[in-house]
Amino acid sequence: MNKNNWADILIDSYIQFLIVEKGLSENSIAGYAHDIKEYLGFLNKKKINKVGEKDTSFILEYLIALQKAKLSPKTRERRVCAIKGFYKFFVQEKKLKSDPSKFIELPKKGLKLPDILSVSEIERLIKAPNIKTAKGLRDRAMLELLYAAGIRVSELIHIKVTNINMHACFIKVFGKGSKERVIPISLCAKKNIEKYLETARQKILKNKTSPYIFITGAGKPMTRQGFWKNLKKYTAMSGITKKITPHTFRHSFATHLVEGGADLRSVQIMLGHSDISTTQIYTHIASGRLKKIHTRFHPRG
């Protein structure tokens, strides 16, 4: 293999696999490509221009280098995941007989639980927009739907009018890797969306047209930055001091479902997680909150 382009050839073949077989999003693919490029660059500096079955020592050496560089446990974990997937791919392609990363463990790190909002805080935020205005009706409908369906903000802003079934109370979204999922929504969300569609959307559009539900005065779909700016404004209006992002609604949605007794598999499907281990973090959050409640209210807590 040519010493000048060997890394690019390996990365290209792996990216093709991620696109065709895994159907990952552009951001995920770019992240994997970057992490693998960094690793292969490390090998290149050691005058190594191939990958092989005996690379375990090189992988460990690379992880030590990452730790010395003071990269966060989260970043190091991501790099290990990328490397393990990379080697696994070449074993599947029968380019390698065995996987040298098989017994490499992920860096140990404490479980960082995401911040969530209480039900009353969610209600205060949802009620913050001024619904006497067209944009206020739009913003309330967006906040209501974000919490009702637990979707990502990138999914929220790309929902089209044809993606929502008001009669059945379901919406269709396209998540990471363009994976489609259908999610039930609450009656409160339905009511707010209907009011927005009936009385406010066309006022915002004026004489323009758009396939998207949530639009700006220019007739374009709301951007993530625009929504985040509005969220910060409504957070301040609500008097909530927690650090809130659009993703906080998603975390709150999942935690409140688990606390209410929803099974983890159902929550996984609604969130669109490919691996249930990702969803399991919400059991930790719920357990922690329940423990505080028990300690506070139990006679012998």
The radius of gyration over CA amounts to 23 Å
Percent strand: under 5%
Mean pLDDT: 83
- Summed up, the domain count is 2
CATH structural fold name of the largest domain: hpI Integrase, Chain A
> What would you call the shape?
elongated
How does the SSE layout of this entry go?
Elements lengths: L5 H17 L3 H20 L10 H13 L4 H20 L26 H8 L7 H16 L3 H4 L7 E2 L4 E5 L5 E5 L2 H13 L1 H5 L18 H15 L7 H14 L4 H8 L4 H4 L1 H17 L4
Antiparallel strand pairs: 1-2, 2-3
What does this structure look like?
The model has no long low-confidence stretch (mean pLDDT 83). The longest helix has 20 residues, at 26-45. 30% of the residues are buried. This protein folds into two domains: 6-92, Orthogonal Bundle (DNA polymerase, domain 1), CATH 1.10.150.130; 119-297, Intergrase catalytic core (hpI Integrase, Chain A), CATH 1.10.443.10. By secondary structure, it is mainly alpha-helical. It starts with 5 loop residues before the first helix and ends with a helix. The chain contains 14 helices and three strands. The radius of gyration is 23 Å and the shape is elongated. It has helices at 6-22, 26-45, 56-68, 73-92, 119-126, 134-149, 153-156, 187-199, 201-205, 224-238, 246-259, 264-271, 276-279, 281-297; strands spanning 164-165, 170-174, 180-184. 58% of the residues lie in helices and 4% in strands. Helix 3 runs antiparallel to helix 4. Strands 1-2-3 form a three-stranded antiparallel beta sheet, with no helix packed on it.
What structural keywords apply?
301 residues; mainly alpha; DNA polymerase, domain 1; hpI Integrase, Chain A; 2 domains
